[in-house]
Predict the structure.
Amino acid sequence: MTTHVLQFVGLSDQDRKAAKAFDKLGKGDQVEVRVRRKSGEDQVVKLPPKAAALLETALGHLLQGERVAVLAEDQELSPNDAADILGISRPLVVHRMGLGDLPFRYVGKHRRTKLKDVLALKSRIGAQRAAMEALAGNAEDLRRRQGVSPTRKPKSVGRSSSRTSKPKDVDQLVLGTINAPYRRTINSTDLVACLMSRDWQNWIAHVVTFFTEVRPELVLQFARLHAIPIRDLVAAYHAMTSATGETNPALERAFERLA
């Protein structure tokens, strides 16, 4: 069985200082690679424009101290490799595979997914995060229209008051964010039940997205409108973190302010 391992290449500080970046390629520029053999013979390879642009990009990242990996789109990756590219935990990658969000196959007992499918998922996650930012802006406008200061700190999480948003408005913002990247959609009733019981075996990806992608003030507002006590919300967050390794420092600071 062939094991595919995602290998990154980086330059040492000494190599970076010795290397020189070439000016940005322009239209009509040509790039050649010169290889000096042990025999002393030089071999020159002329690169096509797209390959030259790839080399320029890779060199730029290397000179900035970043690591670079070059893979074919059909390269198969392990869940750990996919997690590195996606910036999420391995358990969440495996869960996405189980949901059908990330195609995979078994090689023996091991899961393998193609790079092109990982990049497609990464693109969807990026689009979801962009949508989240737009939704967060809508939430901020909603708070302003209701006369709630965006810098005002919530005092408690309990029953909704006359000055808070209508549940359907907050639910739309929260659910629009957490359902965007997935084929299955969770409703507010099931989400509240998951948070209160901390039994989310079938909804772990959605719960992770709720805690990590929804803005902290909107998380707290959702909990307040649905009468979720702060202690239960914090306990649900820590249970999620223990299960997946995902964290949200901004939300943790919001919890500390409420303590």
Observations:
- Confidence is low (pLDDT under 50) at residues 150-164.
